[in-house]
Structures are given as C-alpha cells and as structure tokens.
Automatic annotation (TrEMBL), chains A, B:
<keyword id="KW-0274">FAD</keyword>
<dbReference type="Pfam" id="PF01565">
    <property type="entry name" value="FAD_binding_4"/>
</dbReference>
<protein>
    <submittedName>
        <fullName>FAD/FMN-containing dehydrogenase</fullName>
        <ecNumber>1.1.2.4</ecNumber>
        <ecNumber>1.1.3.15</ecNumber>
    </submittedName>
</protein>
<dbReference type="InterPro" id="IPR016164">
    <property type="entry name" value="FAD-linked_Oxase-like_C"/>
</dbReference>
<dbReference type="InterPro" id="IPR006094">
    <property type="entry name" value="Oxid_FAD_bind_N"/>
</dbReference>
<dbReference type="InterPro" id="IPR004113">
    <property type="entry name" value="FAD-bd_oxidored_4_C"/>
</dbReference>
<dbReference type="GO" id="GO:0004458">
    <property type="term" value="F:D-lactate dehydrogenase (cytochrome) activity"/>
</dbReference>
<dbReference type="InterPro" id="IPR016169">
    <property type="entry name" value="FAD-bd_PCMH_sub2"/>
</dbReference>
<dbReference type="GO" id="GO:0003973">
    <property type="term" value="F:(S)-2-hydroxy-acid oxidase activity"/>
</dbReference>
<dbReference type="InterPro" id="IPR016171">
    <property type="entry name" value="Vanillyl_alc_oxidase_C-sub2"/>
</dbReference>
<dbReference type="GO" id="GO:0071949">
    <property type="term" value="F:FAD binding"/>
</dbReference>
<feature type="domain" description="FAD-binding PCMH-type">
    <location>
        <begin position="40"/>
        <end position="226"/>
    </location>
</feature>
<keyword id="KW-0560">Oxidoreductase</keyword>
<keyword id="KW-0285">Flavoprotein</keyword>
<dbReference type="Pfam" id="PF02913">
    <property type="entry name" value="FAD-oxidase_C"/>
</dbReference>
<dbReference type="InterPro" id="IPR036318">
    <property type="entry name" value="FAD-bd_PCMH-like_sf"/>
</dbReference>
<dbReference type="InterPro" id="IPR051914">
    <property type="entry name" value="FAD-linked_OxidoTrans_Type4"/>
</dbReference>
Length: 470, 470
C-alpha cells in the first residue's frame, strides 16, 4: 500500500513540479540518506523540489492526504539527524526556493525564500552596508573546501545561533514574519515587517520546532547596519579555569563584543595543522577570540578596555589585532575548526550543548574526561555568547567499537551539560540523535504539553516523524 | 450555583491565603472593576493575593475546579481592558508576589516574581551598573504623581516594548525562563538561565498571550550593563513628512540609538503646560528625542553624527543636550506625556498601534483627521524603535456622545494602521477593546489556529475569557 501511495504521489507531484522536480531513482535518493550527522542513515521514498510557496503547499497537501511522512530539508547540515528520513517518506527540499525576494532598507528587513543560503544574504547586503546578523558561514562538513552551508529555513527550524549571537541574539530574534505551510497544505502568513504582533506568537513556536509542526516557505528577517570598523582581540590562557573566569570578567565589564569564541588546545592544534593556519598560539590551553565593533576610535577604545580586562583576569598573552587581513584570517581559522579536525583524527562526532558560562572550565574538563576514559581525544569550541559548547570527539572508524564509544562519550557530555544547568542543544536541534535525552531536561508533563501542541498542527503525526520526542 | 461556587472557593482560598489574601466585600471589589482602560468596567466576584508559585498554583487549581473564570492582574495599567473581569470570576492579583529573588551577574539574569514593578528592577540594579532593558517607567494613569506602574508579569502578558526597544528589543527578547501556572494548577518551568532551549518555544507562546493560556508566576530576565554615558539629541520639524523621513534617515545611517521618540505639536503643548515642562519647542509640528549611549567620547561622536543626519534631513533645529540634568528633564517630560493630557483636555482615549516606520507621517495625519472629522483633537507620541504609535484622542465626557466618538476615532486609527501595513497593538494587547479588530489582521484560519492552541492549555475556556478572540 505504501508503495502505491508513493507512486500515486510522485505521479501527481510531477504534474506541477516537472520531471526534474521529483526524484525517485535509487542513485538519486542515496544523497538524501544522511545529513551532517554521519552516524545516522535513513531511506527516503521520494524527494521533491518545490519552487514557490504554492508548489510547496500543493506537494505537502498531496503527501499528507496520501499519509506519507514529510521531512523538510535545507542543505542537510543538521548534526542531530533532523534531516534524515528515518521513517521513509517524502523529503521536501528547499533547494529550488533560493531567492532573495526583497530588501527593504527603510524597514530594515529582507524577504527571502527558505532555501536561501545564510551566506548569500550577507554577500548580497554587503554593498549596502547591511548584514543579516546570524553569521553561520561555517563549513560544517568534513571537506573544508565544500561550499555547502546552512539555509535560512534550516536556521529557523533549529533556531541557530552563530558567532555573533552575543550581541545580536539567535535566529528567532531576527524574525519578523514567516510564511508557513501546514501539513494540510494550508498556507499561513504570520507576522510581517513590523516588530510586534497581536495574538499568540506563532513565529516563536515554529522557530526551533525542527519541521515537526509545519514547513517554513518564506521568512521576513531583520537586517542591521554593518559597523564601520571591527577590532579583534586574541588572548591565550595557561589553564581552562582562568579562561572561563576571563570570559565572565569580559561580560561583567559591560563590554558588548559582537563575537566571543573560545577554542581549546586540541582545536587550535587542528586548525594550525591545515591550510587555514592563522598563527594561533599552539602552546596555550585555551585561546579566546573576541571581536568588538563601532566607529574606528570607538572600537579601538573598547578593544583596549577588553584587553585590559583579559590581562587582569590572568591571560598569559593578549594581542589586539588591528590588521584587518590578519583578523580575517583568524576568524576564517575559527570557522574552519570543524573541518580541520581531519588533521588530528580520521573521524569525529560533534556535540552541541549549552552551559551556564561560569561553568565553562568545569564543562571542558568533563568533556575531556568523558573522552579520555574511552581512550578518545576531545577538542572543544565554545560560543561564549550563548554558552554554546561544541565538543568534537575524535575517533577512528576503522577501529571496531570506536564510533559507538564516541557517541557514548557525546551523550555523557550532554548529560553533564544538563547537570551543570545547561541544555542538550544550542543550535543543532534535538532531532533523532538526542531525543532520548529530552527527558533529562523536561519532566513528562512539559513534554506532553509540547506533544499536545504538535497534535494541533499535525494530528496525523506525519511531520518529520521520529524527531524531538522520545 | 455560581454564587455557591464562589463562596466555596473563597472559603477554601482563605485557608491558605489568610483573611487579607481574599477580598470579597463590595467596597474592595470596586477598585478591580477597571484597569487603565477607562472606557470599560466589569465586576469580579473575588480577588485573591497569592504570595508564592505554590499558592498561585493552589488558588488557580481551586478556581478551575469550581469552573470560575480566572483573570490575572498586575498593576492594572492595561489599556485594552485585558485586566477587566468582563465575565466576573476571580482576579488573581500578583500584588504580593513582588520579590526580586536573585540577581546573577555572571549569567546576566535576574529572577523575579511576576508582581515586581518594572521600575524596581532598575532601581535595584543601578548600583551594580546593570539594567533591565524594558524601560516602562511611565506613569500611564491620569494622575502624574501616581506611582502606579506596570509589573513584569503584565509586561510579559502584553510583550511590552518601552522607550529602549530600538536597541534592546521587546519583552520576549529579555526572557530566559518562566514559571507558569496552568489552569489546572500544574506548574511548568520553561527555560532557565540559558539562552537557548530544546523543544518548542513555550516562552514565546506564553509571552503576549494576555493571560489566556496560563498565569506567569516567576520570570528569569536578562539584564544588561548600563553604558557609561548617554547623550540626548533634540530635533524639531516644521512638518510631519520631514520628521518621518528624518526617522528613516537616522535608521538608515547605521546609528544605533537606544531610544528614538517622536511627539507631535499637541503632545508637546500638553507636556509644556504642566509641572514637567522641559523647554521643548512648542512651535514645531513634531519634536524628535533621540538617546545614544556608549563611552563618553563614543556617545558624543555618535550624537554628532545623528545630529548631522537630522540637519541634512531638514530638521528646523537640532540640539545636542550634553547637560545630564537637562537630558533627564526632557525624558521625564516625554514619560509624562500621557498624564499631561489633562492640561489640554479633560479626558482622553489612548490607542496603541504599529505602523511601518516609513508610513509615519501618513499615519499621524490620518490620526488627526480621524479626530478632526468628529470635532476631536488628537495628540501623538511614537516609539520609532518598534514603529509603535500612541494616538491620544481628547474628549470631554461631560458632553454627551463625545466618549463614543473618541472610541470610534480610535478604532478608525487602528484600522488605518493595519491598512498601512501595521498592527492593532504594539504593547497594550488586544484585550477586550480590540478583539473585534483581530480579523482585520488575521484570516479566520489563523485565528482558529490560535484558538486550537488555547484549547490545549485551557480546555474549559476559563483563562481571561472574553479577551483577544472576537
């Protein structure tokens, strides 16, 4: 029956999406078995590529009527298995919904289709002196030359953060309006170009719901002026507790850095072993990268204040990087940290938890210990802005059992994050990989409340099934 | 039956709230017939004053089991009738839940009970160099000497903005965690001290829901460092379109003012007629107040840039107010604008809509026209940060029919806001007064979606009944 439902669906979908808008061949489907979560696979029955809100609505309605699971997919960079079709079904790809529809400088918003790549908005806005503040121009995938990066739709599904969230907040703080497609194929436009809305905040509800309530077709995002100048500060530390205290001291000083990123020794070693080496100090236990912005004199003044706080907090070296070319190189190095892991180990699992900032040193040491007791090394990068920790657990898949040990270590680290007062995900979602950890954060009753809300949107339970809820 | 339910409820409530925690006398209930919405009254059956989350939970459970409507109430400054018990029932006042429970500077959060007055947090934080960024220290009520101001719980229920939202966002952007009481009396803790949460964003959903889903008992709010210095810029304009374009020009210039407020001629006249007169120019069609902050040199530099933009945009006068005492006087004048209306007319209706900023001049002229054709004068204050317009429609209640005309003019203005691409509420909620306008903003289907979500929380429909939904 499932088989005939799929072929009935595919035939009808071809009528309005065209031949190239519906993939069903084994070889084509192979690409969609995985996302950035290398430890998980699933097999889709069909992949469709709508171009507009209306096409997305029609194809979702069709699938829902046939009773076929619906899995939204952007660039497939999820690290929690959110984009993996674990139950089979139809993948609705936003690859052809990749248009920037409008830039409205007076209202400081951009209107974009869900498949627009995060980086593109900034490439487009740069000449206007504007930016979209969620800077996720990372290359998550193992190949550092890859141009695959996340889409706005994916960012919304996961409420992603990025390096600039210390100052600008996370994705939900950038959203003014959404056009969503309900499982029934009905289109709902929520919000607009304005700040505030009457009635319930459906934008907040959809954001971070990982495709389990509705699909996002278009978004109205706020854009902000780019500052005239930015200055980068590079500090190194002889031990982790001192680095952790320095992060707190900078925050308590009243400085408003746009970005504040910490890398531990192994993360620095990885980056410095590859083509993106930027001369980061390899002898330090931790390296802290901070960026401040403003007018040139303002940014310089703030940078010297921050540098002073870092020195007083026990940094073993502080450098104000005034040369923009060198600063750009340093930030590129940071952004390549995941990709560079290949230089220190053949495979890795990346985790994503948050912790109260003052527990930073403790969390880093627990992460290392969780690896060490299984004979694995753990590198760490940390977005101090939202207390978002990314431990990278290195393993060698050729050694039997190591992959399982790495996954186990990852779970142990996330549980430690929760025990320290944090959460099991900062920006990569709960997805499939972490759903069994949800009860560590919420009581059964809170989870039931969420499921009751899901049932309002998706009574048949066809939207990204098998995700978030244990 | 209702009568016996009420006395049964009151008797049991007294057991744990004490005699002074339950009001039932006619004379006591009188105070709770109204909120800031002078045009609406309703009669509560009983008013209760829990002191803790547990007491709030117990009293809500009790009322729900008796089938009694539950109306949450902070300071009762609502301007949309949100706090008026139009169906009777029990008012759950947060007046005794007024404690600041914790200030955590390292995580930059404050933990407060829902009844804490907005102003108190800042009074408390000032000596630590911190602030809660939602500055609602207005005195909404007619008496400018009154110390009644809004509570954090009320701010959350309405997702309020305030003068600083241009830079810091609205209430939902300040929230990290909430403790809520469901209609069944069950307590749910959502979020925590961390930025991001796994699962659905229940905080966003509760914020702005005007007590129709659950009651807020406690909140964890982010606090931010106070800047070293601020500088105020005062500009005057000979006509509204020029003032509107100047607001857009300042935003497009990339400046990041903390506050940007516009008052029209009649609003200035009112303020300058009373004890808060601050020497604002009475000859201008519009006066724009802007505040920038930073280090002293940084703030001064930004102020001169903003002043230059204003001059180039056609301001007929621009003054950089460097004297902090004079600046404080000017902002106090702005904050007293509502109260000062008494100097230019005996009564007023205040409306609350948003508009796209570039439609400012158009909206102001429509507002005036809506009054003029009914023989009424309309003053306007405008938060440029979130495009939030507050028209103040003057009338004389001694003249038969004027009050009705004023309400009618208000509705016409809000409809115009929607037609200009805005909304029917910026921060005062939909409440009772504007529920019939909700269909101007949403289609039936979007409203049904909201009602379906309400039913998940409140199947009996007892939470603030008669509000938001038409």
């Amino acid at each position: 029956m499932r088989r005939s439902a799929i072929s009935g669906f595919a035939k009808k979908a071809r009528e309005f999406l065209g031949e190239e808008g519906v993939l069903q061949e084994e070889v084509d489907l192979l690409v969609y078995e995985q996302d950035g979560t290398l430890a998980l696979r699933g097999k889709a029955d069909v992949v469709v590529f709508p171009r507009t809100v209306q096409e997305m609505a029609k194809v979702v309605e069709l699938a829902y009527n046939y009773g076929i699971p619906i899995i939204g997919r952007g660039s497939g960079t999820s690290l929690s298995g959110g984009g993996v079709p674990v139950t089979g079904g139809v993948i609705v790809s936003t690859a052809r919904m990749n248009k920037i529809l409008e830039i409205d400088l007076e209202n400081e918003v951009a209107v974009v289709q869900a498949g627009v790549i995060n980086d593109w908005i900034n490439a487009y806005l740069a000449r206007m002196g504007y930016q979209y503040a969620i800077d996720l121009g990372f290359q998550y995938m193992a190949d550092p030359g890859s141009q695959r990066v996340s889409t706005i739709g994916g960012n919304i599904a996961h409420n992603s953060g990025g390096v600039k969230c210390f100052k600008y907040g996370v994705t939900v703080n950038q959203l003014r309006g959404l056009t969503i497609v309900l499982p029934t194929g009905e289109v709902r436009r929520i919000g607009g170009k304005e700040f505030e809305q009457a009635g319930y905040d459906l934008i907040g509800l959809i954001t971070g719901s990982e495709g389990t309530l509705a699909l996002v077709a278009e978004a109205i995002v706020r854009i902000v002026p780019t500052y005239e100048s930015s200055v980068t500060i590079l500090a190194k530390f002889a031990d982790l507790p001192t680095a952790g205290r320095a992060v707190s001291a900078v925050i308590a000083s009243g400085a408003m850095p746009v970005a504040m990123e910490l890398m531990d020794k192994l993360a620095v070693e990885a980056v410095e072993s590859g083509p993106y080496a930027a001369g980061l100090p390899k002898d330090a236990e931790a390296v802290l990268l901070i960026q401040v912005e403003g007018s040139l004199p303002g940014a310089k003044e703030e940078a010297s204040k921050v540098a002073e706080v870092l020195r007083r907090s026990g940094a073993s070296g502080v450098e104000i990087v005034e040369d923009p070319a060198r600063a750009a190189k340093i930030w590129a190095a940071r952004k390549q940290a995941f990709g560079a892991m290949g230089f220190v180990g053949p495979n890795y699992v990346v985790e994503d938890g948050t912790i109260p900032r003052k527990k930073l040193a403790e969390a880093l040491m627990l992460a290392r210990a969780a690896g060490a007791k299984r004979g694995l090394r753990v590198a760490n990068v940390f977005h101090a802005g939202d207390g978002n920790l990314h431990p990278l657990i290195l393993y060698d898949e050729r050694k039997p059992g190591e992959r399982e040990k790495a996954i186990e270590a990852g779970e142990e680290i996330l549980e430690a994050c929760v025990e320290l007062g944090g959460t099991i995900t900062g920006e990569h979602g709960v997805g499939y990989m972490k759903k069994k950890l949800l009860p560590k954060m919420y009581r059964r009753e809170e989870i039931e409340l969420m499921k009751a809300i899901k049932a309002v949107f998706d009574p048949k339970g066809l939207m990204n099934p098998g995700k978030i809820f244990p």
